[in-house]
Amino acid sequence: MPVLEVKNISKRFVEEGNEVLALEGVNFTVNDDEFVCLVGPSGCGKSTMLRIISGLETPSGGEVIFEDKPITSPTPKISMVFQLFGLLPWKTAQENVEIPLEVIGVPKAKRVEKAHEYLRQVKLEGSENVYPHDLSGGMKQRVGIARALALNPEILLMDEPFSSLDELTARALRDLVLGIWRKRGENPNSIIMVSHNVEEAVYMADRVLVFSPRPGRIIGEVNVDIPRPRFDHRRDQQYFETVDGVMELLKNGKGRV
Amino acid sequence: MKGYVLKVVAGLALILSLAYLIGAYSPYAEMRNLPAYTVSTVTRITVTLVLSVLWGVSFGILAATNRVAGYVVTPVIDLLQSIPILGYFPLVIGFLFTWGAFGVEVSVIVLLFTSMAWAVFFGVVAAVRAIPANVIEASRSFGITGWKYTRHIILPAIAPALVAGANLAWSDGWFFMIAAEYIEYKGAIVSPPSGGIGVLLARSAYFYRDMGMAVQLLVYVTVLVVVINSLSWHRLMNRAGAGTFKPLLQIGLSGIGKMGAREASGWFSLEHIQVPKAFSAFWQRLEDYTRRQKMLTAVIAAVIIAVFLIGELHHLPSASTVAQAFAQPPGEEFGGIHWLILMTMGRLTIAYVISLAVAIGLGVLAAEHKLAAAIINPVYDIGQGVPILALFPAIYLGLGSVFGSQRLALEVTCIVMLVLDMIWYMFVNVSSAVKNIPSEIREVGSLFGFKGMKRITHIVIPSILPAIVTGSILSWGTGWNTVIFSEYLPSTGPGVPDVYIPGLGSLLDKAGYVYGNTILLVVIVTIIGAIVLGMEALIWRPLLRRFEKYKVEV
Hints:
The structure holds two protein chains of two kinds. Chain A is about 35% helix and about 25% strand. Chain A is an alpha/beta fold. Chain B is mostly helical. Chain B has 22 helices and four strands. Chain B has helices at about 1-25, 35-65, 65-80, 90-100, 100-130, 135-140, 145-180, 195-205, 210-240, 245-255, 260-270, 275-290, 290-315, 320-325, 335-370, 370-385, 390-400, 405-435, 440-445, 450-485, 505-515, 520-550; strands at about 185, 190, 490, 500. Chain B has a two-stranded antiparallel ribbon with strand order 1-2. Chain B has a two-stranded antiparallel ribbon with strand order 3-4. In chain B, strand 1 and strand 2 form a beta hairpin. Chain B is globular, with a radius of gyration of 25 Å. The two termini of chain B are about 40 Å apart. The model of chain B is unreliable at about 245-290 (pLDDT under 50). The interface of A and B includes residues 76 and 89 of A.
């Protein structure tokens, strides 16, 4: 059952006086309990697509349907993890997680408790009162993930969440996110992630959508049937074949432009 | 190109016809000189600007790239920048009396230089320091060194900062034009032989006390500045990308040189007042020195001590001349100096708080609402170019009729002047900081639904705190400059007494302008310098360091 429908989205914006078409006729759906990954060459508009879903940007044409209504502004039910973490430097880890809760009116005692709980989930107990300045990149992104999860979102958006981390940290965080998502009966229900790392996409997603270079269109879709947890299958033939399949689509996409 | 030529012609025609009309309809014969005097003032400021750029670029690059120079040059320039324009008076007198008419012209340029040069220097230093390490390493790996390095790496990298700094210097020049072109010395007035708009402005305001005339000239200067800005600076700033550059934000950090600042504030920090710490820090560093470095340090110290001793014996004024200076007027007022300091500080504090509140309000409004920006920004552009010193007598006369008492009128005038002066630095820092809030932080704000006051208190204000501190440093700096002119309204003709309110500024005026008591002038300037540096060490630098963490690392 689809929880989110992207219908014929296009996005134009003006860059140095020239009109640029970033996205053109993008259609896809995201199902209940599904992990979808958008991959494509840099500048193809996949991050813009994510921002349109989050309500941060408005499309030039088309609409994104969530709970039977088009998305027009950000909602706590759709939360986001940023590439550069997006933490407020003047708030501690704890306060950074608390603050979106404060905005939606959660009482003080409750939000302190929740922030603690989610910081524990991302294994940051003991660093609650540290400022982002004094956290490592991996720890910052853990705070970013805890902050997004604390809102108990239906859909979690992730914009290249691991691309500014070193590979070892990134691996640990990928499994952490997958672990949280796999917990039955708890949000987030579905995850949409933007990535330019094909191995990462295949490792994490149920479905990989491949974008063409600008203007971004979906030029292919790969279903990933590898059983979970995929850590046990990361050396399987099937894993490498799927990665090659996505790579092939990316290459063809480039050839067509 | 054709359109641009047309614009230049139209601009010139507008200025010339305005100058002609003002001159033709004025009751004072000297106003006929307005077109010629305009050329003279514009040339003067341009010459000073060229000198400032040449000096700023060469010393700025030197101070930012050379460690030794950085240690010496930056603190010295920081100190020089803190000295008000009048503090350079003793220097100027040398030219005034020895070189005749040419000497006066040189003096005016020297005075202008002392208020224009800093913006360029600090802009350049900050920009050179901001060149990313990877760019430096890459160019090293390709063997780009020496002049090639300067030409291909440093100069392009500092271009936006340079243009922005030069533009700031240019505005400063117009601002201090009156103070520089209308020098009062021992009761007589010295003006450059080639004339200037500042001369006419000062004459109509101070001598004729004709506010109508002064306002006409002010409007004229405003039009002139706006036309020149739109013809040159706007194009230049756009081309260099200087609009997106924020040199002001970084000035504070480049102050006394990176290491020096931290240590200096350590010496003064309130928690542990320990003067000997300065020495212990020095001894600690000395331990890391190589033998050759230790030798070098010893030699430099020996030379400094020797020079000092020789200077003490031969050139510095002897104890008896100093005592004599204190015995002459206005030396007798020196007894109550602590009250004078307190009163002037009080005026500055009131004006600062007002400017802070208004600038934050307007700056945030201008950055958050397009419509508000469309109104506030042009007003700012025009306002910053108006030489408010010329407004001084006008505001005083206006307020004098409102308040019965002369003293109260001048008191309020002084604070109004200070606010008008300090607010620009706060505003430009605040609004550029609001504009430069990183997009991710903005997105976080909208994604999590921060609105209204929550957005301002949680997102906007914290991200501009560093800029507020830098703006405060600059505001106080310029405030000290202005307080000197706004505590004292000199006599405008026979029978009209001087009006002043007691304070450090009016005492300085008396020492400098009225009695020509140079030694006392130097003493007062030293006190002001000490207050400025003390505030920087005790208040601003600790705050800057604290807010450094608030910077978003991108």
